[in-house]
Amino acid sequence: MANAGEVEPIPVVPATLGEGAIWNAAVQCLQWIDIIGQRVFTYDPATSENRGYDVGQKVGTVVPRAHGGLMLALQEGFASFDADTGRVALLPRPRSTIRRSSASTMASAIRPGVSGRGRWRS
Known about the structure:
Elements: E1 18-24, E2 29-34, E3 39-44, E4 49-54, E5 59-64, E6 70-74, E7 77-82, E8 87-90, H1 103-110
Antiparallel strand pairs: 1-2, 2-3, 3-4, 5-6, 6-7, 7-8
């Protein structure tokens, strides 16, 4: 293991599209994702161990939780992840509070100076 402030290469783990590397200070490990490979990786520099976990769907990001574990942004929504068990728990989707509306009403809401017919209001 390198001294503080030194850079040290780590063993390469094959990934289709590896992204989003973060240092998780709580567990003293480097974590990252393989978006297309649907995996989350953890590298422990103390043991030089790389562990990969299949999360079952494309993953967009990984962040540490305040009280342990990880949160994932998956193709189907947000999920908590426990690296000790490999358990992925999808969170319930929030109900939408936006009512469906016509495009002209939405245009007026987004651009207050434009009427529903695309004309400027005074």
